[in-house]
Write a structure and sequence with these properties.
By secondary structure, the chain is an alpha/beta fold. The protein contains ten helices and 13 strands.
């Protein structure tokens, strides 16, 4: 079955269309940190043995410390935030869901697959992508007003002071965290749900046993116990986002928003801009609902000169 939903990525298709090998391309269509957390050496048992309880408990403890999760809230580790998004609609009786748009489209797809109706009027569930993808809009505690509010904080680690995880012990609030974006390890497939013990237990039952691999448990625990790396990364991301804005505005783009992991620009003809960059083997993100929006992630350190030449 082919996934026809709008996503970043797709470099293989871009190469087939514009030429070159995959290795020739710089993928700026995602919001993944281009300078990932350095992988630690792993014990062979992380690969050969079923994940043990001690490793899972160590990861959860590290997550609780890093995100300052209230003691009364429970945490579930999962094989990526996407696996949690797909299962969230099963936590509540079928009803109305409000997902403020435009935003990350997997939430709407998951609720639609379960038969939910989209409605902004008296919703049973509200999904807030915080900060929003692609606009970068942030929400606040006053927005946690539906019977069940899901807060997707996949990009929130760039500004931890704006996280709503401190409210996750409240009935009717579930906060999602993605490990792949900020730490730049999307292939590790690691995500988290934070909420009341009842909601988290139901989600855990939907995932089944051993949902997270041994390598993901080990790498995740190590990274979450390294706040110094996180602090240094936030400084670098902010500087690189400002550098990207300067390049794009000099080239005629207008800044719409975004985060320090991705930037959103108004360029007039987004399709033409995407093609222009693609001729230099740089892949970008455009949207089916806007003819003028172009989204760019941050280039790797060896990609800045090439991007500047392309612009």
């Amino acid at each position: 079955m082919t996934d026809t939903r709008d996503h970043g990525g797709g470099v293989d298709d871009a190469a087939a269309r514009f030429g070159g090998d995959r290795a020739d391309w710089i993928d700026l269509s995602t919001g993944i940190n281009p300078v990932p957390y350095p992988l630690p050496p792993l014990d062979a048992q992380a690969w050969t043995a079923l994940p043990d309880r001690a490793a899972a408990d160590a990861l959860i403890a590290a997550a609780r410390r890093f995100w300052r999760v209230p003691d009364a809230a429970a945490i579930l580790a999962a094989p990526g935030a996407s696996s949690l998004i797909a299962r969230l609609p099963a936590l509540a009786p079928l009803g109305r869901v409000h997902i403020p748009a435009p935003t990350y489209n997997e939430h709407a797809a998951a609720f639609a697959a379960h038969g939910w109706t989209q409605s902004a009027k008296d919703p049973d569930v509200r999904v807030l992508v915080h900060p929003n993808n692609p606009t970068g809009h942030w929400y606040g505690p006053a927005d946690l007003d539906a019977p069940l509010t899901v807060v997707d904080e996949s990009f929130a680690d760039v500004a931890p002071e704006r996280s709503l995880a401190s409210h996750a012990a409240r009935d009717g609030v579930i906060v999602l965290k993605s490990f792949g974006k900020f730490w730049g390890l999307a292939g590790l497939r690691l995500g988290f749900a934070i909420g009341t013990s009842g909601a988290i237990d139901r989600l855990a039952g939907l995932l089944g046993p051993w949902p997270v691999s041994g390598p993901a448990l080990a790498v995740g625990r190590r990274a979450l116990d390294d706040p110094a790396w996180a602090d240094e990364t936030r400084v670098r991301l902010a500087a690189d986002a400002a550098r990207l804005d300067a390049l794009m505005t000099r080239a005629g783009a207008g800044v719409v928003g975004g985060t320090t992991l991705f930037r959103l620009y108004e360029v007039g003809d987004a399709t033409a801009w995407q093609a222009r960059l693609a001729r230099h083997r740089i892949w970008s993100r455009i949207f089916p609902y806007s003819t003028g929006w172009l989204r760019l992630g941050l280039p790797p350190q060896d990609g800045w000169v090439r991007l500047e030449r392309a612009l």
